[in-house]
Amino acid sequence: QWATIRLQKSVKKPQPQMPQTPAANGIIERDETPMEKEIARLHRADFEFSHIFYFCRKGFEAIVEDEVTQRFSSEELLSWNLLTRTNVNFHYISLRLTVVWVIGVIVRYCFLLPLRFTLAAIGITSMIVGTTAVGQLPNGSVKNYLSEVVHLTCSRILVRALSGTIRYHNKENRPQKGGICVANHTSPIDAIILTNDGCYAMVGQVHGGLMGVIQRATVKACPHVWFERSEIKDRHLVTKRLREHVADKSKLPILIFPEGTCINNTSVMMFKKGSFEIGGTIYPVAIKYDPQFGDAFWNSSKYNIVSYLLRIMTSWAIVCNVWYLPPMVRKEDEDAVQFANRVRSAIARQGGLTELPWDGGLKRAKVKDTFKEEQQKNYSKMLVRNGSIG
């Protein structure tokens, strides 16, 4: 806050007086009037060439600031947290602030980073060795108990490696065996944040390298559900294996992130319906990070996993809140999409996140033609309904 106040005082140019207008919902002020009402208000219902300007304006609004792309970049902070110098306004404010920043760099890179790297190495090694040893035991209550001890212990070491400070709320709603835990997704460390307070069966694709070694070791001690790349494309096979897991009430709850990609800690995007077609009880969980101490969001389009982990381990700390919401079941008159939307809304309300209907796959893919065709169909239906087309 001190840095922000100093920044504001350093601005010499007077700001022009802007006319009093209602608060805009971003860089630009959007008009959320539906297409039919706006065109009907400006013109008569028949087609006019001036209708083109409506679509042009909407296109310009999307180019200046669309509500999807901005969710895939780090959220803006009101005050500087001394973690970056990329903002041109913060290149130089005063000698005192520069000295504070340099001291912070020395502390984070020369003291915290080596300590955290050592703890992370201990946690990962313990996970591999411990789960491999437990995996040699016969199936039974002793193996399950030791597996949970290993997973919890190693997860807590890894959280310490991130200087994690986590507050868990409403622990009476923690996911139970035979259920499905769904949560919003900000970072790969979301799984560690949750397993720090309880054990889960993970669901994901088989990887190579160090991640593959960890997967092969942990699956021996705990019934995680790992899929080959070819199996991921077979929705029926995936659903079958997940249903078999949920049907066994002695197995750990499945942990799923239905968004399918990381969102920047400000929003919750569309949940894939597959997780809600399995059946069983859904245990929603809301995760909200405090960006003042470190940016937990992983922009996988900009940083690889090594660069991301370096940024995380050189931040001040990872501080977040986790809310366990009451369990939810699918209603008789609900389909999977409606159920997914209801669960998403509950998570967004609890975490103070913006609820968006868009698919997180837009992070890497172009807008589907079906979305464009939908707008075209709506406009053509409007003309037909008003008798403009014979």
UniProtKB/TrEMBL annotation:
The UniProt keywords, alphabetically, are: Acyltransferase, Endoplasmic reticulum, Lipid biosynthesis, Lipid metabolism, Membrane, Phospholipid biosynthesis, Phospholipid metabolism, Transferase, Transmembrane, Transmembrane helix
Choose any GO biological process term that the UniProt entry carries and state it. phospholipid biosynthetic process
- Membrane topology classification: Multi-pass membrane protein
Annotated transmembrane regions: 90-111
Determine the domain of life of the protein's source.
Eukaryota
Q: Which GO terms describe its molecular function?
A: glycerol-3-phosphate O-acyltransferase activity
User: Where in the numbering of this chain does the Phospholipid/glycerol acyltransferase domain appear?
Assistant: 179-290
The family line of this record is: Belongs to the 1-acyl-sn-glycerol-3-phosphate acyltransferase family.
Protein name, per record: GPAT3 acyltransferase
Organism encoding this protein: Oriolus oriolus (Eurasian golden oriole)
| Gene behind this protein | Gpat3_0
